[in-house]
Amino acid sequence: MAIVKWELDPDHSEIQFKVKHLMITTVTGTFRKFSVEVETEDDDFSKASHIRFKADADSIDTNNVQRDNHLKSEDFLNSKNYPQIKFTGKGFQKSEGKMTLSGNLTINGITQIILVDVELGGIATDPYGHTKAGFSISGKIDRRAFGLIWGSVTEAGKIVLSDEVRFQGEIQLIKQSNKM
Q: Domain map of the chain by residue range?
């Protein structure tokens, strides 16, 4: 079996997160700078031996500069001391046609095991001869487990920010040529 390396196609990939605000609406954000590296046996992603995701904490974007600066502060991501969010995949589990990836997620210097739902959209060759693989991913975390404990309550007793953070992504990887 040949080891195949795959890297992110940033022009065709995105990572989003969603958090309830006042428990009545959802705020969506993205990370503008991130990378993904995967190593597989041939083109079999279920046996990937190396899965690494990194996002630059300073690249967070919720379409509101004041909120973004608050999210980068010590109240949340503490991006000065912890400039990257990292995920290292440990292995896939298949069940009823679905794949779940377990791995270590590190935010704010705290590492927790999480599960990520992964759907392989397929593998195709683009018009320039590059082999690409596409994935949809989703999951959720409890932000408090990563030390993101800032919270507030309105005068009426409403929670300002939910503890659950949902994330989703569309990831396209490019197969790297095995140059020696």
A: 3-175
